[in-house]
Each structure stands twice: as C-alpha cells, then as structure tokens.
TrEMBL record:
GO terms for molecular function: catalytic activity. It comes from Thauera linaloolentis (strain DSM 12138 / JCM 21573 / CCUG 41526 / CIP 105981 / IAM 15112 / NBRC 102519 / 47Lol). The active site is at H108 (tele-amp-histidine intermediate). This is Histidine triad (HIT) protein. PROSITE patterns: HIT_1, HIT_2.
Length: 148
C-alpha cells in the first residue's frame, strides 16, 4: 500500500485542490458529482482514480446520489481502460479509514488495470467460520438494514 498520507482539513485536501484546479491533474472525465483522473503513482498504466467533487472523507460520508454517480463513472472509466490498455484483468479498490488502508481522506475509488505478473498483492486470510456463525452475522446485518 502507498505510504503517502494526506491529512489536510476539508477544502484544503489534495483532491479538493485538484477539483478546484489549484493543482494539475491528468483529467479523464467529470460530471456534476464526480471527477476521474490519472493516479500519479500508476501502479499499472491506465490506473485511474474516481473521486467525489464534494469533500467527503469515506463511504460513510457520501450521499446515495454520490455513491451512484461514482459507480457509474467507475464503470465508464473501466470500459475506457479496457478499450485503451486492454488489460487481461481489472480491480476496483476503495479504502475507508487508516485501518482500511485509506491514505487520502477524500472519498475515491481506484480503477486498476491488472496483469498476471504486476506485483499487486492483497492478503486474504480466510477464516471459514461454521454456517451458524454466518447466519448470525447475516441476521445482525438484516436487522441493521431494516433499522436504517
Ligand atoms: Zn477533499
């Protein structure tokens, strides 16, 4: 994961400054709610970030309309990445909180073209709990959704 961490306050964060045109960016697409631009790190050629135009730190801070707009821009960008760079795979990554590996605290999603030997690694330590535990988790989440 990248080591750069931007802790600037809202309105002064690096993506807010990018949205405002105060710092340069290689823009790919924008609409009313979102902006897409090249990640300066380019983990693989064609690596794009899709961010909300409004400052919101995490998934829990964006509106349902912004969430929908981000998803649509991500898909639009993904088609363009596929057509332009022709990667055999593509990964979406969206991080929330330091423990979730978020480094810029302005909501964004990575669109990452993937290749078999690209060195990107995600540890996935399966726990494989028994079925009754899964049912318990699901019941708690259904209750949370019904209550929300
Ligand atoms: Zn911001």
């Amino acid at each position: 994961m990248p080591m750069f961490v931007d802790t600037s306050p809202p309105g002064q964060c690096i993506f807010c400054r990018l949205v405002a045109g105060e710092i340069p960016a290689a823009r790919v697409f924008e609409d009313e709610l979102t902006v897409a631009f090249m990640d300066i790190g380019q983990v693989n050629p064609g690596h794009v970030l899709v961010a909300t135009k409004r400052h919101a730190a995490t998934l829990f801070d964006i509106t349902p309309q912004e969430a929908a707009a981000v998803a649509q821009t991500v898909q639009r960008v993904a088609f363009a990445v596929r057509d332009t760079f022709d990667p055999p795979g593509l990964t979406l990554l969206q991080a929330n909180g330091r423990e979730g590996d978020q480094t810029v605290f302005h909501f964004h999603m990575h669109v990452v073209p993937r290749h078999g030997d690209d060195g990107i690694a995600l540890s996935w330590p399966r726990k494989d709990p028994p079925g009754d535990i899964l049912q318990g988790y699901a019941a708690r989440l259904r209750d949370a959704i019904a209550g929300g």
